[in-house]
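To assess whether the prediction recovers the assembly geometry, we first specified each molecular entity separately, as shown.
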Amino acid sequence: MQNTPFDTPDVTLITPTATVATPTHGGRAKCLQRLVRLNLPVPQTVALSFSTVHQIATGVLPDVDGILQRFKDGCLLCVRPSSEDPDWGGPGAVLNIGMNDARFVELSDRIGADAAAQIYKRFVQTYAIHVARLDPDIFDDIADDGQIGLGQSLRAYEDEAEEGFPQSPARQLAEVLRSMARAWEGTTARLLRQAKGAPMDAGLGLVVQEMALGLGQGECGSGVLQLVNSRTGENQITGRYLSQSQGREALDGGTRALFLERDPRGPSLEELAPEAFAELNAHAALMRQRLREEMQIEFTIENGELHILDGVRAKRSPQAAVRISVALAEDGIIPRHEALLRVDPHALTELLHRQVADDADRDVLGAGIAASPGAATGRIVFTAADAQASAARGEACILVRRETAPEDIRGMHAASAILTERGGMTSHAAVIGRGMGLPCIVGAARMKFHVQRKKLISEDGRSLSEGDIITIDGTSGQILAGAPKMVEAAQDDVFRTLMSWADAERDIGVRANADTPADAQTARNFDAQGIGLCRTEHMFFEEDRLTPMREMIFANSAQDRKATLALILPMQRADFTELFRIMQGQPVCIRLFDPPLHEFLPHDRAGLRDMAEALDMPVSEVTRRVESMGEYNPMLGMRGVRLGVTVPEIYDMQARAIFEATLDASRDGAPVVPEIMIPLVSAKREVEIVRTRIDAVAAAVRNERGKDFTYRLGVMAETPRACLRAEEIAQHAHFLSFGTNDLTQMTYGLSRDDAGRFMSDYVKLGVFNEDPFHVLDTDGVGELVKLGVQRGRAGREGITMSVCGEHGGNPESIAFCRAVGVDYVSCSPFRVPIARLSAAQLAIRDKMESGKY
Amino acid sequence: MQNTPFDTPDVTLITPTATVATPTHGGRAKCLQRLVRLNLPVPQTVALSFSTVHQIATGVLPDVDGILQRFKDGCLLCVRPSSEDPDWGGPGAVLNIGMNDARFVELSDRIGADAAAQIYKRFVQTYAIHVARLDPDIFDDIADDGQIGLGQSLRAYEDEAEEGFPQSPARQLAEVLRSMARAWEGTTARLLRQAKGAPMDAGLGLVVQEMALGLGQGECGSGVLQLVNSRTGENQITGRYLSQSQGREALDGGTRALFLERDPRGPSLEELAPEAFAELNAHAALMRQRLREEMQIEFTIENGELHILDGVRAKRSPQAAVRISVALAEDGIIPRHEALLRVDPHALTELLHRQVADDADRDVLGAGIAASPGAATGRIVFTAADAQASAARGEACILVRRETAPEDIRGMHAASAILTERGGMTSHAAVIGRGMGLPCIVGAARMKFHVQRKKLISEDGRSLSEGDIITIDGTSGQILAGAPKMVEAAQDDVFRTLMSWADAERDIGVRANADTPADAQTARNFDAQGIGLCRTEHMFFEEDRLTPMREMIFANSAQDRKATLALILPMQRADFTELFRIMQGQPVCIRLFDPPLHEFLPHDRAGLRDMAEALDMPVSEVTRRVESMGEYNPMLGMRGVRLGVTVPEIYDMQARAIFEATLDASRDGAPVVPEIMIPLVSAKREVEIVRTRIDAVAAAVRNERGKDFTYRLGVMAETPRACLRAEEIAQHAHFLSFGTNDLTQMTYGLSRDDAGRFMSDYVKLGVFNEDPFHVLDTDGVGELVKLGVQRGRAGREGITMSVCGEHGGNPESIAFCRAVGVDYVSCSPFRVPIARLSAAQLAIRDKMESGKY
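The predicted structure of the complete assembly is given in tokenized form:
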């Protein structure tokens, strides 16, 4: 059929050549045109553009009679929304427009009075509620019987609306169009779709389609079909069919609905109408091939004849999304790069962790910041020691603390999940939780934490005790009572295939932050290209190291410090040797000791007494010295390179441990080239001083062992000043790694541990668009990184630039890092796949823009 | 006398036309040439250049015989050092060179054997010790009698040196030159002069001068004279004369030395030799006029005839420096701008505070960081409450604390000086101390502070108790036992004259940081051009405000917060009214509430109990809530505009108090235009939100009072991000004030309160050239200020830019501020004069460079 002269792009019959496009008419209109082009049996359809619908909302109607003239005389119509992105929602479809007393009579002849009355009754009720906006209660007592119910419904309408039910199909259509257009412009609808990413001025198109009735004589009914399982992504014909139904009723049809394919569980469409089923399947296969996507098809059978009413992108879990994309590419339907673009990197998170099932019962005790994704169930414990005891008994436990500190590390390793009252996205618990892939909720401040009394009070006042079972849903941030249903992580071959394609595309490196052998193993499992940040401080918290560490802190001379550190040396060497062995010659970037020394000192009476005994000092003296080491702002205090300069024996020992481990590990495998990173640098001279000592240690080790090795010395650029002075700092550094966590803290003047108190208010009020600890602030922090990269490269040709810390795994932040010329990002092992895919997508989009794809 | 042909610039007879310059021959040689040009009776003098002396040190001697030929046959010579700056030190003068057995005989004839023997004996001893480097002990038992002593000395020399005393004048002179040249090149001498600012390669010249003997027949003697008092700068002939003496012996001559001018205290040169005295006075007046400086003159009378041997710049206290410069300008000898350049701004500090007298006995108990200059004596107290009690009894007290916190404010006001164990140049105690002009030493960590037990242990182990009298010398950083002698502050008319000349020259504004009416009065006394920073938090610490403040903090609703803040409103309004009245229409920039709320909460058991009573809550609940408000890094926490956004009732109340005070104060005087400053901004939206509310408060006050007023709203740029985003932030701000204290903390990632622990090590090791809290780090922090100024001006034309905080009063930092285009600096009231003079000097130097002066 050709467009008639009065067709315009604003109101157009959908034909293979009509001017219909997603940005002007919406995705549904465009999809229907593609189905028409495939010669599928699509009922006659007219598309109304965004601008037409916007006009309708302001009161300017199109030529409704003209629209009606495009359709067979006496047919019924339906109107469906067609927005640019189907996820943005929209008003519900209105079916059976045109139904009135006269057509009821006609239709009764054709399909029987009961079916006709059903259709008319439904239309009256839908129209009353959604178009005339009458109170739904008026239909509460309507009889089920078709014809009696119809009469009651028409009377109820007349009573409430104070006029008879409109009989003119033109008026009906006009009112439906007007009500749908206005619903789209309503404030609630706008806010809802903006929350899903729609722009302020997102438009709505509408499609007016001739109804295939699905009720009447012969085999009539409707259903939906798709070729894949939405949860797993595997090939499986799924959907339902219900005789004598319209729209999507089959999905709510319960046991009355048929399976599609022959199925042991019950009767199927394939058995009922083998020809229609075969035709439907052929259409579905064609749609997958030509629409290059797994679609869910809405179809109607009218007296045995198949009609395809609509096709929408099949819903899919993250796991299914991966499998579907890979299958489409492997079947040659889409190229690999397109398969990569179709998977949302954020969604990968769910694949890498156990999750609370979608259909689980959630008994919510409270909520906090979703700091580390995944879910775990266990018994409540309130101390790190109890967590270890619990692990020793083989019982899963949840560690509940007001906050965590480095001394809780072993307890955190023993726990299945972590819950804290305080802290934000980058508090200690959150960072460690993400690093270990442990579900974690922080800042759950609306619950009450009586850690001393071993009580936890839920937001609604329920009291929980040690040993009670709870579930931490680190993906949503909810604390749940008991053990809801879970779904397991799924990192299968298909996932690995997708990742290998990503690696072939991306042009920025991805390393992992890994502090322990377990982390390193995870990093390798996720194919990280080395370790970008190995924090060494945890190595000093092990039981056997803490006492020498404390003796070292209290030592009065460099000589004494050296002697106590010598006790720790062999243990550190063993730590590094194991890391190097696991990483099999891949680069390992080790950050020298960073935290303030007072983190290693006890603060409670028992701990002070123990320490006094261990060091053979009076408790009063120990207490005085511990107190005198306290700091107002430990974050900005005596730590990092400041310790390296003023208490150089620690770095000396660490450098020796690294170099000796380098030689030990190189003996059995690929030669190791360790990278040594100096934290918290703010001035060039700090680097010079540390470098001189480390070079001396290297020379000594070479001499003692009679073997050569190389190493790279670099700087963690995490103060604004290090970025500003990067040119001169780079003269002494093989690499600069931007520690965007601390850099964000300092650029904003905002402690990550304290920001939790107001960050959610701040994001809600739009003061910050995003939590800058979560998404890199490209305007402020980003400018410093950019300056740092530019100046660093000006200072030393061939210098390696990287970003480590939480932002390294964030897709938006990776885009920025890549744009400013960073060589690699480093993130938690569990975010490595996300980073790899994000990086690939960025490279692909660049190639597409430059016409290479 | 003309130069003879063999004269070169390297070894030259000083004549009016000889080539002699300070940068090549040193200041003494140049000054002597100027005296020669004035036709003063200067003995024949030869100048050796820096390069000649450097050659001598390496072993290459000039033509010594040639030098000797320039002098009368048989005369004695002296050699004196002539470095570029007399402050850089140098080897001592050597007199009487050329003395030997033959000349002893000749001289015995002329001036008597005793005098000749005295001269010879002194020369032998000086030569032995300083030239031949013999052990001084060998002269321990030499007889006083001239001739016997001479013989003993010659024998002692011969015994020790294993050769007779050298008789050749040429050899004597050569050895003297060599030993002086080498002394200058020694490491100790170099380090000493570098500490005074000399460059690595500073040179030494030497002057060889014919001796006027000062011993012999007729009136012979030597002395020094200057026309001003070195301490006060007032006109007063000062100096001494001693018959039969050489060099500067008259100054050590005790009661034997004569006064110069007729004096009731004893005999004078004026009486002894009126003609010589008159001639000397005439020479001195001529020198002041023509050398354009107050000089100290070294003179010798030989048989009644006056010789001028040397002139050096008269030493002067800071007070004298001001008076001398002003007098020279008022006498038309130098222009005003030169008078301004001659006063070191740093030295003004001493004029503004009481000081420990130079000649006081110092019994040092310990030392710390000299955080606020001036000295005060008082009894030790260990708590703020005791300080108030002490003040109530009218007893001066010294507040000794481990550190101070805002709740100590009233105690600090009551104390005469402050001493703390912890903290650095910008810790709370230091900042408040400087603001109040209170002597303060912080970071005295080598003393032991047992504040609970009310004991203070000195560095050498002495125990001090409450009530013991000590003295805090905040200028030197020393803690002294007892009450040493003091000198009072001197801010007199001459000082005001100099300052008025400075104000006429400078082109950058100077305001004061002032929090209280007393501060504001000081600011006016020092002619600040308004208040650049009025911190308001102290206003909440007053006894009558603390309880409502705490109720406000614990309130559960905005309504309750408003109600409790309403109690504080009238008191704040009164505070501001008084400030505005004192400042008489000058601008007052008020910073809105900045500190974290937990600073207002008690932390000890007694305080918690009091608070529980006052608020009628269980202690356990109060304790829990106080604890839950604690922060890891309060500096980077919930404070400043973050409170303004999330607890807006505080700023609402403050704005109302400011506006109502504006109307109240404007009624009686010049109309007040208050400036309101938002602290800790890091994002534009923070400013928008606060501004909207403050505009609303202004509208409400205008409406209620039926009167109009204007105000200016601005931003304290103290986070790196505020500087980077200054362009957009400026769109909502009438002014930006760079808070360089916090900005330095964040740019370096360095807490000012914790930096004390390692800052001195860092400066010693050259990691930082200077403490960046003391001198603005122009490389890093400065770049952010510069970017902020540029971007802020790009964002809003005519925006006012300023720098507040400690750096505002530092001369080096002011130079930077002026260079980057800041409109005014604001600093502690006591630093205002320093800033005014520094700013004037900068403007003058610019004019000189561009030829306008």
